[in-house]
Amino acid sequence: MSGGVSTATDSAPGTDVRCKINVSLLSHTNVGKTTLARTLLRQDIGEVGDRAHVTEVAESHVLIESPAGDSLILWDTPGFGDSTRVLKRLQQGDKPVGWFLSRVWDRFADRPFWCSQQAMHNARETSDVILYVVNAGESPSSVGYVDAELRILGWIGKPVILLLNQLGPPRDSVQSQEDVTQWQEHVAQYKWVETVLPFDAFARCWVQEGTLLAAVQRLLTGPRQLAFGQLRESWRVRNLAVFHDSIKALADQIAAAATDVEQVQERDIQGKARAWIGAMATGVENTDPGLERAQTNLAGRLDSNIRSTTARLVELHGLTGRATDEVLKRMGSEFAVDRPADADKASVLGGLVSGALGGLAADLGAGGLTFGAGALIGGVLGLFGARGLAKAYNLARGANTGTVRWSREFLFARVAAALMRYLAVAHFGRGRGEFVSGVAPAHWQEAVQQALGRRKSSFDALLAGTVTAAALLPLIAASAQEVLLHLYPDVSHVFE
Fold first, then answer.
1. Could you tell me which residues come within 8 angstroms of residue 179 by beta carbon, excluding any fewer than 6 positions away?
2. What is the fold of 20-204?
3. What is the pTM (predicted TM-score) of this model?
4. 166 vs 232: which has the higher pLDDT
């Protein structure tokens, strides 16, 4: 959802705008209306702060526009203050004294109190639907102002959708339903509250906006409901484009890692001899600087690619901020080293073991590359005979240079990490400020592993050959869609 500021609320004769549907955000002060508005609009509007009455006047913003010229207007309003006093003043508004106190006296004597009243009048006069935002961290029965505010919503006389804000870190559907049920039971006596939805300004996922829009449409009638259907479709098309662009960015990242390769700079004969003889004496072979350098270069490019991909996701979702440091955990199987049989090493070892029992299956320790289990490299490894065999082996396999690349296991793990990164961005509300990565909830990891597990054979077959972003795209897209539908079972209409 995105758009610019607008203050018009009615269609003027002769304009292209066919229908303007107004939705107002209302809540107790400092519950997070403006934060939620920023998340929905994907732009910084109003002022947010940890104090009461930050927003003083109602502000309207275009949330969605359709090609036909219809528009959905979102109103950010001043929060309720002393809700009981506000309700009493509103009920007195039809009397001359009450009208004077509400419209004139309070404006100068108690401005926050006056702002709260004006927000209610504005909502009553302009709104089609009210979005009432509550703090889900509080028990509805223990917060005195909730019932007074619900009665105020009854005075406004418009259908109400209650939104549970401040839910904390993303939770699974079972946990979210517990909060929903608690609030549904509490507001059951207030018949104008039509539905209760979990919708956290800090951690909502974009697909949940589709659920909210569907709930709003059900509360409209006639031409306005039809017009809202076009608005919903405009929202769906725009957000699916963001989804597919995001998945393409992930596919590009994985394909780049899968095709990345680094040449290994070999040590000279003296360096090799010292390393091999030292390994025979100590049982531990010294590290290969050339191989380490190649691995470091690969890791550096992967890290850079992850950062740029994350930045692209952040931009696509209307957020700001940069990716934090990515930690590449060394897993042992992350690198696939392909190096030629070392003729120099074969020569040195051949000279050392000349006369020993022949016919052994040789593994010359070339970064994990073997000559093949059971493959016999000559009989007795003579000083020159082994060198000649190694060179012949390299010539036959067409490889005279060593390379290092990412292993298939590591690349498959990168797909899972990429989907987790996508979920982090897709759930991050702009109202939180600049994007920062956090600890992923366990139920996200479980959903990702299940979706990828069902497609592992397809990924393995793809990663074993020439990898392209175009080939990865449908697999990653299907996995991401399955994860979202698992986390939010009621959003299938978004992908239809």
1. 136, 164, 167, 198
2. Rossmann fold (3.40.50)
3. 0.75
4. 232
